[in-house]
Design brief:
The complex is a heterodimer.
Chain A (H helix, E strand, L loop, with lengths): L1 E5 L6 E4 L3 E6 L13 E7 L2 E7 H6 L10 E9 L2 E9 L4 E4 L17 E7 L2 E6 L7 H10 L7 H6 L1
Parallel strand pairs in A: 2-10, 5-7
Antiparallel strand pairs in A: 1-2, 1-8, 3-6, 4-5, 6-7, 9-10
Chain B lengths: L1 H13 L3 H4 L1 H15 L4 H10 L1 H11 L10 H12 L11 E6 L5 H11 L8 E7 L2 H9 L1 E3 L9 H6 E4 L13 E4 L1 H4 L2 E5 L14 E5 L9 H14 E9 L12 E6 L2 E6 L7 E5 L20 H12 L5 E5 L6 E5 L2 H4 L21 H11 L5 H12 L9 E9 L2 E6 L3 E5 L15 E6 L3 E5 L1 H4 L17 E6 L4 E6 L1 E9 L11 E7 L2 E6 L1 H11 L2
Classes of the chains: A mainly beta, B alpha/beta.
Chain lengths: 161, 544
């Protein structure tokens, strides 16, 4: 399986690519009407508005910086059979890694409660693999998805012009 | 489909993992073979491949990667020397040291081993090296033992003077330039016996455990799992209980722990084989022993700010030669740096780089990659963010429709296009020879354009003024275009040829003139796309 690698040093993480729609550069964010923990804001993406979770904030407790290597991973969350696009801000996203299914090992104890599927070994480091579905607690996640408005943002402008 | 089948066949025969060489490489090799054999397509080629083992061999020759040079990853040879000199491997009286080089390619590796051992007095004369490769062509070169300059890398080339004869000083075409070749001396060559064979086949190996050292470097990386396992088992079988297997620096991780375990000898990292009998056999991988600290940037350390990082880079690289400001794009940091190491220690420089044994070019060196990443560690400029925001809020552009490629040319003052699948060739005008009683306004005569072809005037057919042809740039721009099929072709003179352009397959349904199917626009010009079928049919009717 193909994984995206982000973060650096001891703070590296991996994310499975199966549910990734697109990886885009950092873009401007709108503040949502009410604050949800770890949520950086809303972005206009491909004609719709999607909520964005700051992974640095979620995993490291520190808001991410906008570097050239900071990117937004657009993934799909499935809730009650419906797929919802969600953005994840990841710093230092410059690599991918391909591993076999058997290379995914179970988490060591200290990572046990985190939103992880397991760990993989990359350059002799253990890198946790995120479970994209468990990033936020269920209630928070549904609040988040309420923010996502599947409105077409640009189509009207196009017609006008 | 045939491509996948060919890949499967290669995997079966030689255990090649298509991902490791890249599917494109296999595709290219197949295309070359199809061309060489004069076949039509991959399906036909696949048939050939299934029928003939020789063809499999030919394809293998095209595909296998075999880049090497003398003393590549020198520490592997140092390891052998260390074992022999340090008494790690001892020989009984009358016993010979036996070594095997799997995937020996052009012979650089087995010869390097021989040189290393000949240098070592302790071993004296008692050693023999078997070398195996799947490529016959490579083995021919290996057996000849003559090498060009590019087979020698690294700082210490003194062995070249001792074990090679310099031959062929200066090539005839450029006598000034030195292009010597190096012929390996007989006393090295006689140590090595080359065998053609596939490492997956049992007949390349002796029946019993024979070898003190087996070199199998940069071969496992190209194999799929089954082939790797099979090869490792064969190696395990022919390696003496006290012997060592040496693999490439990237391959240590691919050895299953139930076969081998790690050992460390004098700073050389290795693996020791796990044997069911309890005796263990070692394998050595030159991993991190002498690699300079630069190769392994400590991961635990958070990267300092960029300026600092570059500062450290200079310290490490010592003796900076040039000093020049490097301005990063707007929004980035402005830093003054010494020249980067790859600018000094590149292929053309004599300056020693501790990593040069590892990587053939600086661009494949991890340091280069590291530097590349630091460029992305600068703050994103505001205008960049603005631009990205604008781009990604737009709906995803649709994939471009099926494209039409057409040859664009001018007749008189109008531009036309012909779909390229009907164009045979474009050439400088040749003399048109008229045919008595037949030549007319449309049919002009015959012309020798890679064969005798019929020449027509599209100007006449399309009712354009031939005289105005030259007014847009003179007769020098005129070209002859042959269209149709090889059996039935027509040649006409175009006043100017622009070249082949890609058009989106047009959807215009405007009422157009008789021969033009559609109108295209190109550079704000209107180009008439000629209806080739109609054109060819009418030409055939007019010129009977």
């Amino acid at each position: 399986m193909l994984l995206l690698l982000f973060g650096k040093g001891e703070h590296r993480y991996a994310l499975r690519s199966e549910r990734v729609l697109e990886v885009i550069p950092i873009v401007k964010m709108e503040r949502p009407g009410f604050a949800i923990k770890h949520v950086a804001g809303l972005i206009a993406h491909r004609g719709r508005q999607i909520p964005v979770i700051d992974l640095a904030d979620l995993l490291e407790g520190q808001a991410s910086e906008s570097y050239m290597s900071t990117r937004i991973i657009v993934i799909e969350w499935s809730r009650e059979g419906v797929l919802h696009p969600v953005g994840l801000i990841a710093e230092h996203l410059t690599d991918t890694v391909t591993i076999g299914d058997e290379d995914l090992r179970s988490c060591p104890d200290h990572l046990g409660d985190g939103p992880y599927l397991g760990v993989i070994e990359v350059d002799e480091d253990l890198v946790p693999v995120l479970d994209e579905e468990r990033l936020l607690p269920a209630t928070m996640a549904s609040d988040l998805l309420d923010l996502a408005l599947p409105t077409v943002v640009t189509a009207k402008e196009d017609e006008a012009s | 489909m045939p491509q996948a089948e060919i890949e499967r066949l290669l995997a079966e025969k030689i255990g090649l993992d298509p991902e490791s060489v890249g599917r494109g490489a296999i595709e290219l090799a197949v295309r070359r073979r199809i061309e060489a054999l004069g076949l039509d397509d991959e399906t036909q080629y696949l048939g050939q491949l299934r029928r003939s083992d020789e063809e499999v061999q030919e394809l293998v020759e095209e595909v296998v990667v075999r880049n090497s040079w003398f003393f590549r990853e020198r520490r592997a040879f140092a390891f052998v020397r260390h074992c022999c000199a340090g008494g790690v491997v001892t020989l009984g009286s009358g016993e010979e040291l036996r070594l095997l080089s799997l995937g020996c390619a052009y012979g650089e590796e087995p010869y390097s081993i021989a040189i290393e051992l000949l240098d070592l007095q302790e071993i004296g004369q008692q050693f023999r090296i078997d070398a195996v490769d799947i490529s016959r062509r490579a083995l021919e070169i290996a057996a000849r033992g003559r090498y060009r300059k590019n087979a020698f890398w690294g700082d210490d080339l003194s062995f070249r003077d001792r074990y090679f004869e310099r031959v062929g000083e200066g090539s005839r075409s450029a006598p000034g330039r030195e292009d010597p070749e190096f012929q390996i001396k007989e006393r090295v060559a006689e140590r090595v016996s080359f065998t053609h064979g596939n490492v997956l086949e049992p007949q390349v190996y002796p029946a019993v455990a024979t070898y003190h050292f087996i070199f199998c470097r940069n071969l496992l990386i190209y194999m799929d799992e089954r082939a790797r396992e099979q090869t490792l088992l064969a190696i395990k079988r022919v390696l003496l209980p006290t012997g060592y297997l040496l693999v490439g620096s990237a391959e240590g991780g691919r050895l299953p722990s139930y076969h081998f375990e790690t050992v460390r000898l004098e700073g050389l990292l290795g693996f020791r084989r796990v044997d069911p009998t309890g005796t263990s056999t070692g394998i050595a991988v030159d991993k991190d022993a002498e690699i300079s600290p630069a190769a392994k940037v400590p991961k635990e350390r958070q990267r300092p700010p960029m300026k600092l990082l570059l500062q450290q880079e200079q310290d490490r690289d010592r003796a900076p030669r040039t000093r020049r400001p490097t301005a990063l794009p707007p929004g980035g940091l402005e830093v003054v740096v010494e020249s980067f190491c790859w600018e000094r220690a590149g292929l053309l420089s004599d300056e020693a780089c501790p990593l040069r044994d590892e990587y053939i070019t600086c661009t494949s060196c991890p340091r280069f990659k590291e530097h590349g990443r630091t460029l992305l560690d600068r703050a994103a400029p505001q205008d960049y963010v603005d631009l990205c925001t604008e781009i990604y809020r737009q709906p995803k552009p649709d994939e471009i429709q099926a494209k039409l490629s057409a040859l664009v040319f001018r007749l008189a003052d109008r531009w036309f296009a012909l779909p390229t699948d009907h164009v045979l060739l474009v050439a400088n005008p040749e003399k048109i020879r008229s045919v008595p009683h037949r030549s007319g306004k449309v049919f002009r005569g015959i012309v020798n354009l890679t064969g005798i072809r019929l020449c027509v005037s599209l100007h006449a057919l399309l009712d354009l003024d031939e005289e105005r042809g030259g007014s847009h740039g003179g007769a020098a721009k005129a070209r002859m275009i042959a269209l149709g099929t090889e059996e039935r072709s027509w040649v006409f003179v175009a006043d100017e040829v622009h070249g082949v352009r890609q058009f989106e397959d047009p959807g215009l349904d405007e009422e157009t003139e008789i021969y033009t199917r559609e109108l295209l626009t190109w550079n704000e010009r209107t180009v008439g796309l000629l209806d080739t079928d109609l054109l060819l049919a009418n030409l055939a009717r007019i010129v009977q």
